[in-house]
Design brief:
about 140 residues; mainly alpha
C-alpha cells in the first residue's frame, strides 16, 4: 500500500522556508516604504478623496498578498533553481509563507499590509498559483 505522506517527506521544506524568509523580508521593507508614502498621501488629501482611499485600503491587503506570493515564486525560480517546481511544491510554499508571516508578528517590526490575515493569505494563494500557472501540469 502506498504511503500518502511520502510526498510530504520528499518536499524541499528547508529551501521553501528560506524562500519564505527572503520574500517576507523584501515585502516588509516595501511595506515600510509604502506606509511612509501613504502617510504623506493622507496628509495632503482633501475630504473629497477619502471614500476613494477607503476603497483603496480595502483592496491593498489582497494586492499585498498577491505580490508576496508572486515574489516568493520569483525568488524560488531565480535563486533556488535546483528545485523542480510542480503543484506540490507550490502548495508547500503557501504554509511556509504563512508560518513566516505568523512568526514575523512577534518581531517588533511595524507593518501595515504584510500581516498574517485571511485576506493576505488568499492573496498569497492567488499570487503563487496565478504566476506559477506554467508549473501546474508538471508531475
Amino acid at each position: 500500500m502506498r504511503n500518502p505522506f511520502g510526498r510530504l517527506k520528499s518536499l524541499p521544506w528547508a529551501i521553501l522556508l528560506q524562500v519564505a524568509l527572503v520574500a517576507v523580508a523584501i515585502a516588509t521593507a516595501a511595506d515600510l516604504l509604502l506606509a511612509q508614502g501613504l502617510t504623506l498621501l493622507m496628509d495632503g488629501v482633501g475630504q473629497g478623496l477619502l471614500p476613494l482611499l477607503q476603497l483603496l485600503f480595502m483592496v491593498l491587503p489582497l494586492a499585498a498578498g498577491f505580490g508576496l506570493g508572486a515574489l516568493a515564486l520569483a525568488v524560488l525560480e531565480r535563486w533556488f533553481n535546483r528545485v523542480y517546481l510542480d503543484t506540490g511544491v507550490l502548495w508547500a510554499l503557501v504554509p511556509c509563507l504563512a508560518l513566516v508571516l505568523y512568526a514575523k508578528k512577534f518581531l517588533p517590526i511595524p507593518s501595515v499590509l504584510v500581516t498574517p490575515s485571511y485576506t493576505v493569505l488568499v492573496g498569497v494563494l492567488l499570487g503563487i498559483f496565478v504566476t506559477g500557472k506554467r508549473h501546474w501540469r508538471r508531475w
